[in-house]
Amino acid sequence: MNLSRYFFLTGIVILLAVGCKNDKEEALAAKNAKGPKTLIAEGFVVSAQPFRDEFVASGSLLANEEVEIHPEVAGRITGLFFKEGAHVSKGQRLLQLSDADIRAQLQKSKAQRQLQVKIQQRQEELLRVGGISKQDYETTTTQIQSIDADIAYAEAQLRKLTILAPFEGTIGIRSVSIGAIISPSTIVATLQQTHPLKMDFNVPDQYKAAVSNGKEVLFSVSGSLDTLKGTISAVDPAASASTRTIKVRAIVPNPTGKLLPGSFAHVMIPFEVSNSAILVPSQSIIPTTKDKQVAVVKDGKANLVTVITGTRTNDKVQIVQGLQVGDTIITTGIMQVKQGMAVKIGKVHG
Asked: What digits encode the pLDDT tens for the residues 73-120?
């Protein structure tokens, strides 16, 4: 190849490289000249409106009072005085253990006391005339006091052999029979008071101010379409460190016995009506790893604002903090929104 042809080809290559570079620079300049992308979206104007908030919780129905019937001492059953599943009154005798030996001991102690009382009476007359020493009289008095203690102990043992109902309620299925020898670990039956019932449920600690003694709550149970009522009777003073919830207890009337302890309850806690609640469409909420945001349009640009949400309805979310009445937020194209992006609102809802 001669020298002139070499310089000719080299010149062509240089011109092509410069041309390509100029084309790229012109394309980049044209792109920058267009400016940032404008998002065309629908908007929603924030306004204050009346709203009755309520919290829904899962609860459990419990017997107002419940106890397992155990004997205090071991013994043989000589009598059962209740019918399984029947209503019993407070103080009603439920079970009797064999007490023949203790009654015999009690009878012996009472006979000894009668004898000592007669001796004491004779010694009183002799003591007045100096027929006996005061020490002899005091010894007899001490013996009477000792016998009284034996009698009291025997009577206490007799009471332990008779099991009485501690409160009014319904007794369950018995697990013992007459003639069986039982011990304090033996469960005779379970006694429950089912009118009224207790209903326990948990609420987040943020609702602490909304639950108080005397407040009415609504609930329903499986298998029934009725909405029932209960009254809050107690609220735990502290929240659980693990769940950040507060335990609440309500009292539920059950005069007909249709409600059963252990049943699941769907609890609804109505809150006060707010006339200045802020509700926004649920699709306008932008979830992030740390919090929730909405895109507020101001001066034609998107501003991502962190909000605190409250109760959800079918299609809206309550905003507790972060928005003001009159703000316009974006409801469509949420996934494309970026901070400072130009926005044009095509259709406004409110």
From this structure: 999 999 999 999 999 999 999 999 999 999 999 999 999 999 999 999
Cα 67 to Cα 189: distance, rounded to the nearest angstrom = 9
Taking alpha carbons only, the member of 132, 60, 63, 71 closest to residue 98 is 71
Q: Which pLDDT tens digit goes with each residue over 185-242?
A: 999 999 999 999 999 999 988 888 888 899 999 999 988 888 999 999 999 999 999 9
Domains contained in the chain, CATH given: 38-52+275-349 (2.40.420.20), 56-63+191-272 (2.40.30.170), 71-97+164-187 (2.40.50.100), 99-160 (1.10.287)
pTM (2 d.p.): 0.64
Report the relative pairing of strands 316-321 and 264-281 from DSSP bridges.
antiparallel
In b/e form, how buried is each residue of 123-135, taking b as 16+ CB within 10 angstroms? beeebeeeeeeee
